[in-house]
Known about the structure:
Chain A is built from 1 helix and 6 strands, in the order ββββββα. Chain A has one helix at residues 62-67, and strands spanning 3-5, 13-16, 22-25, 29-31, 37-39, 44-47. Chain A is mainly beta. The relative contact order of chain A is 0.22. In chain A, the strands form 2 sheets. Chain A has a 3-stranded antiparallel sheet with strand order 1-4-5, with no helix packed on it. The longest helix of chain A is centred in the last third of the chain and has 6 residues, at 62-67. By secondary structure, chain B is mainly alpha-helical. Chain B is 64% helix and 0% strand. Chain B is built from 14 helices and no strands. Chain B has helices at residues 9-19, 43-54, 70-100, 105-115, 121-127, 131-145, 150-153, 161-174, 184-194, 210-224, 229-241, 244-256, 261-292, 297-321. The two termini of chain B are 38 Å apart. The A-B interface holds A 17-18, 20-21, 23, 41-46, 54-55, 58-62, 64-65 and B 106, 169, 172-173, 177, 244-245, 248, 271-276, 278-280, 282-283.
Amino acid sequence: MSDAYSRSGAEVRIEQYGDGPILVRHADVVVTDDGQEHEVERPVVALCTCRRSQRMPWCDSTHKSVRR
Amino acid sequence: MKPPPPRGPVSAATREALLSDPQQGAFLEVRVPDDVGNLLRDDDLQLALWMLYEQSYRAFDGAHDHEWDPAAVAVRRSLELPFEQQLRNAVQPMLTEALRTGGDIGSQIEHAIGLVTGPDLSRFLHREATREQMLDFLAQRSVYHLKESDPHSFVVGRLGGPAKVALAELQYDEFGAGRPDRLHSSMYAVGLQAAGLDPRFGAYIERVPASTLAVNNVMSLFGLNHRLRGAALGHLAAFESTSSVPCRRIAAGIERVGLPAEMAAYFHEHVEADAVHEQVVLRDICGNFVESEPGQRAEVLFGALACIHLDSLAAEDLLVSWGDGVDGELAS
């Protein structure tokens, strides 16, 4: 992820939960490293950090199968 | 819906009592045996308890108001207290083991979930289930998914601070995040309809065995009792953290057997939603809750274990009813 922002100017909160995904709150748009913009459609989104998600940039919990 | 057909003396008497005027005192005549036997697999008793709980959600067409009728509450207590005790007994060794691991509550819950063994239903649905079996699964699951997240909403008023904020945030997403078409229970109904199944609440209640009724009843037991608020949060944690990956497999299974996209959409929605919810419930809800009420740690773990234990029983019963063993590839 290179950026996450809110069009209304609300403060975006970004937190990493352990070695799991990054959780983003109050963002409207997530911009990935390739410059592509992804609309945010839920109040909190989880961004993949293991890079194995089949729904990039969103986490699909694949990291759990990988860890096991 | 109308109160469902009874499956034995206690559910028959409960059904009759619900349909009668409270002045008649019919609940005083409902007799629950002192020695209830294995409640987790008792169709009659689980159905009676399910009907009693349902009064606190949508209630029944044609029934009178017995929600706080003291005699009805007494019957509910005589069923739910042994239900709770049997669940505690069933998970006790795993609870002791999970507590021994130490660490934060999130990792303890994840560890506890791994201690429960059972068949892997989602793998079967992904690769092997026939179209008929998939439809049966979807019909049986409708007993919960058509009132998805309602039981855990009772807990919001029992929390304060960051745990309350996080639970409200999760529930907001479950309830459509401001968009009625994204209400999860409605998405499920749309999927059922598209798949040619009956989308009305309770339509398949006659089809589900005791273990699936117990899966539903445990959420009401935890949600409706203040003293079990920790168990309710642990239950939610276990539910959410065992959902994302299975939902991906189930969605693929639905597509494999050729059922419509609306039905698969419900499960696709849960892959992403529950990947988020899992993090929120483990850290923000349970983490903050245990920090504010340290004495509740074991209760949270009890709730998590009760969830997985009952899910395993229900999965086992479903696979057995389809003629599939629970050994070999199905066992995880």
